[in-house]
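Lecture notes, unit on binding sites. The following record was shown on slide 14. It pairs a sequence with zinc ion.
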Amino acid sequence: MNTPFNPFTLPGGEAPTCIEMLQLILDGESTREQLEYFVLHMEQCPPCFQSYEVDMQIRQLLKSKCCREAPSGLKEAIQIKLNGQINF
Ligand SMILES: [Zn+2]
C-alpha cells in the first residue's frame, strides 16, 4: 500500500508529529491539501480525532457564550481565577 504524500512534511523532509499537524489545522493555517490529509489521518488516529473534537467543542462553546450577554462580574471572576491558577 502506498503511503500518500504527507503535505505537512517539513522543508527538511522530516515527518511532522500529530501535534504539529493539529496545531496548523486548529490555527486555521493549513492548506486545503493539509486539511484533506488530516481528515483521513484522523480516521486512523483516535488521539488526533479526539483532540480535534474537543477543541472544536470548546471553540463553539466560547463562541456561543461570547454572543450572549455575560453576567456582570463573570469576566472579572474568570480572569481572577485564571491569574490565580497560572503557576508555570
Ligand atoms: Zn495523529
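Take-home: Residues 18, 41, 45, 47-48 surround zinc ion (CB under 6 Å).
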